[in-house]
Amino acid sequence: MNRVFILSCLLLLFVQCKTNQNKEPLYSVQLAESVMYNNPKAWMTDFQSKPKWGYVQGLVCQALLKVSEQYNEPKYFDYVKNTYVDMVVDSSGHINRYNKNSFKLDDINSGKLLFTLYSKTGDERYRILIDILRDQLKDQPRVEGGGFWHKKIYTNQMWLDGLYMGLPFYAHYATTYGNTDNLNDITSQLLLVQKNLKDDKTGLYYHGWDATKKVYWADPETGLSQNFWGRGVGWLYMAIVDVLDYIPKDHKDYQNLVLMYQDLTDAIIQFQQEETVVWYQVPNYPSREGNYLEATASCMFVFGMFKGIQNGILSDEYLDAAKKGYQGIFKNFVRKDQNGNLEITNCCAGAGLGPADNPVRDGSYKYYIEEKIRSNDGKAIGPLIMTCLMVENNPDFNPGL
């Protein structure tokens, strides 16, 4: 009888831990379940028709691995392993449709999953794949100042997107496998971006920079693209705060990165809208015709704030902005669809710069506001799930939704 009673109490405690005060499933769990319902296979999470190794899949799956860990729920781990990684990685540890010589930083992002999979399973395929992706970074072309090209086809260009795709994986590898000298390379690349892509007036960062100042979309004097793009700034913001997980506090550049992150936080909050408490697609033009409140950037910004507070690199004075942003995301972007799943609306599907034979992607204001808008984009889902996990794990973060 006592054994039955104890088991019943444990079951009740488990159920309570997986629900919020309104007896609704936790938002992180609801979002994870929505991902699995809408995407029977995890490789589908970037609207793909066949298995592909992609950065969006990596972002969503990283969030699901964190849900699995926080709530001791193996089905999310199994979903990532069985329906994404193991479907695009063969028995020898090679990636289907991956070409190192394309030198796409986007291909590196999913590598972050492999550290967890290797640790949990001991499967040597994952270690082989980790090294394959690290080898790409060893040979990745660089601008004169040392920063990685975004892709081989984007000659001498650094984009904010690529910092998130490559540097947290690089930092994780460096600290896991004893190559801590590589941390100097990582921090110097971020500081190179601060030197060349930051706008001193707003504190925001331009989407891209051509170190040779020759590509058609670049300013001939600075090499910079024309505008700030919300999600581009979000990629940089997440890159800094994630890289700081691996930089020792006594590292020569640690404090410089903290200041860079804090400065960018202040700039982001400056453009947080007073009424909606979220952000626009082109954040510094809130009243300009055609601009719209955009979910992916808003989710990235709020994630970055909460993580900075959680890790002690932002003071609690920033909690108000983070909580308001979290509330704003659910008020402006999140709703239940016809199947009862959570849907994230107002997501910019994608944006880039060039290449030379694509004059449409010119970095103009008109270009950014006219790119496709869709729901349930993984670039919003991943950061939002990870934000929800932090809020659920820390009563001080909870805004009382």
From TrEMBL:
Tree of life domain: Bacteria
Gene3D superfamilies linked: 1.50.10.10
PANTHER family noted in UniProt: UNSATURATED RHAMNOGALACTURONAN HYDROLASE (EUROFUNG)
Keywords: Hydrolase
GO BP terms, alphabetized: carbohydrate metabolic process
Gene Ontology molecular function, alphabetical: hydrolase activity
SUPFAM superfamilies: Six-hairpin glycosidases
InterPro entries, per the entry: 6-hairpin_glycosidase_sf, 6hp_glycosidase-like_sf, Glyco_hydro_88, PolySaccharide_Degr_Enz
Protein name, per record: Glycoside hydrolase family 88 protein
One Pfam entry name: Glyco_hydro_88
